[in-house]
Amino acid sequence: MKVLALIPARLASTRFPNKPLAKILGKSMLQHIVERVLLCNDIDDVAVATCDQEIINHIEGLGYKAVLTSDKHERASDRCAEAINNIEKTEKSKYDIVVMVQGDEPMTDPRMLSDVLRPFADQPKPEIVNLYADIQPGEFNSANCVKVVMDLVGNALYMSRAAIPVSQDGIERPSGKQLGLIAFSRPALQRFTELSPTPLEINESVDMLRFIEHGIKIRMQRTIYRTHAVDVPSDITEVERLMKTATH
Predict the structure, then answer these.
(1) What is the Cα–Cα distance from 57 to 80, expressed in whole angstroms?
(2) Distance CA 151, CA 158 (A)
(3) pTM above the 0.85 mark?
(4) Nearest to 35 by CA among 208, 244, 24
(5) Domain count, the chain
C-alpha cells in the first residue's frame, strides 16, 4: 500500500500567530515535523498542506513538498482531503492511505506513524485508525485533552473534552487520550469532506466526531510514545528541553 503523510498547517492562530514557523533549536517547527516523519520507513511521501504562501515558500526552500489549499477550511481533515486531491491530480499518482500528522507536534515520534498504520494489515481493513495514549495525571479534567471511550473491540464510542467516563461507584473506567495522528483509507478521507458537519463535532471541536455521528467506525490504536504539543510560545522552552534530553 502507498502511504502519504500530510501535515496541515496555517499561520493564523489566536494564541500563537505564525506558530508553524517558530524556531525550535534553530529549525522551524514544521521542519522538525517533516524530518521526523521522513524517518518512518512505512511512509512513502510527506507534504505540508497549507493556505499560506509563506509556508509553501519555506517548505519548498528546504527541499520538501508543500501544497496550497483553501483558507476556508475549519477542520484539518478537510484541508488534508483537498491536499490529497490536488497532489494526485498534479502528480498523476494514487495513494491508498493518508496519515494526518498535526502541525504543532514537533516531537512526533516516527514509531507513532508505524503504530497507526499497523491495523491496516488486518482483515477486514479499517477505514480510519486514530492513535491514542494513556491519560497522564492532570490530563483527565483538562479540556485540552480529548478523552476517548471505546467498545470492547477497540472502536471509538465517543470523544470529549469533558472528563469521561464518569464513575458513579469510584471504580476507574478505562479511557484514553485521543492523539491527532490519524490514518485514513483514501475513500474515507474523501468521505469526511463530503459528510455534513455534525452538532457534536462542532460543540466539542473534534474532527472525528463527524464520522462517529454519521455511524462510521474509527479503530483506536494505542501507542506508548508521547509528544508535547506547542499551543503557546512558552511551550517552546519545554520542547527544547525535552529535545535536548531525548534519546531515539
Answers:
(1) 19
(2) 9
(3) yes
(4) 24
(5) 1
Average pLDDT rounded to a whole number, residues 159-174:
83
The span from the CA of 82 to the CA of 77, in Å, is 9
Ordered DSSP codes for the chain: --EEEEEEE-S--SSSTTGGG-EETTEEHHHHHHHHHTT-TT-SEEEEEES-HHHHHHHHHTT-EEEE--S--SSHHHHHHHHHHHHHHHHT---SEEEE--TT-TT--HHHHHHHHGGGGSSSPPSEEEEEEPPPTTTTT-TTS-EEEE-TTSBEEEEESS--S--SSSPPPP-EEEEEEEEEEHHHHHHHHHSPP-HHHHHHT-TTHHHHHTT---EEEE-S-------STTHHHHHHHHHHH---
Q: In the prediction, which pLDDT does 14 show? A: 80
Q: What torsion, rounded to 10 degrees, do the Cα atoms 190, 54, 38, 208 define?
A: -30
In a domain, 193, yes or no: yes
The per-residue pLDDT for 137 is 86
- Determine the structural domain holding residue 29 and report its residue range: 3-132+179-198+211-241
In the numeric block, which cell numbers belong to residue 91? 502528480
Q: Report the percent of the chain where pLDDT is more than 90.
A: 87
Instruction: Check which CATH number belongs to the domain holding 42 and give it.
Output: 3.90.550.10
Query: Does 161 fall in a domain?
Result: no
Cell numbers that stand for 182 in this block: 490519524
Q: Which of 178, 197, 78 is nearest to 129 (CA)?
A: 178
